[in-house]
Amino acid sequence: MKSIIFDLDGTLWDSSESVAGSWSATLQKLDIPQLKGLTLTAEDLKSGMGMTMTALARKYFPMLDSRRQLEVLEICMKEENEYIAVNGGRLFDNERQTLEKLKENNRLFIVSNCQCGYIEAFLTYTGFERYFEGYMCWGDTKQPKSFTINALIEKYRCVDPVYVGDTQGDCDSAYDAKVPFVHAGYGFGEISTPDRVVCTADSFSGLEKIFSPTL
Questions:
Q1: Residues paired with 162 in a beta bridge
Q2: Is 103 within a domain?
Q3: Is residue 204 in some structural domain?
């Protein structure tokens, strides 16, 4: 059995519309003059998918000092977790059926550069808890994704791990973690280092063929 470790945003779902709406509403409730009138779009959020929380704070709130950036980001993320658990995001075609098949012959996990509570919100909204044996995020380790991948591998004693993600950052993290990388080509990003990609899935259901025990 392979241990398939999934990225979340752009790989297991697209929550950019919901997150953008949640963040924009939260920003307007804050009494911070520099943020007056600031809204974020789904495209804004997609361009930041995979970044660490510190990098996101710098990207979205450059008008604030570093301390205030992180304070605002923390407020947005807390509101986001609550919003996502209720309103969710867009799943990919045939995702539930594909996870059912993958679960039969593989161990499934999630590693994301998100805050604590976000993966739980995803699982609450989708009802996918039974497919995933475990998960870990930036909020747990406060370290680069490569570190978090290896921390999960060690915690769950993963054998033959593979990382599935959609961005160059995911690819680089898998490479740094010395874990084979499968590109979720249906997601948000493109890969500029094809030599580091084992194979590419053009759809979520395409992952079933890649991880078929007959191949």
A1: 4
A2: yes
A3: yes
Kindly state whether residues 121 and 202 are assigned to the same domain: yes
Encode pLDDT of 14-66 as tens digits: 999 999 999 999 999 998 999 988 999 999 988 887 677 788 899 999 999 99
> Do both 73 and 138 map to the same domain?
no
In a domain, 128, yes or no: yes
In which band, very low, low, confident or very high, does the pLDDT at 166 lie, cut at 50, 70 and 90?
very high
Give every CB contact of residue 136 below 8 A, 6+ residues apart in sequence: 109, 110, 111, 148, 151, 152, 155
Same domain, 156 and 141: yes
Which tokens belong to 2? 């392979």
Residues ≥6 apart with Cβ < 8 Å to 4: 102, 106, 107, 108, 109, 161, 162, 164, 207, 211
Cα dihedral 151, 145, 5, 175 sign: negative
Domain limits at 133?
2-14+90-210
Residue 170, phi-psi category: left (phi > 0), alpha (psi -120 to 50), beta (remainder) = alpha
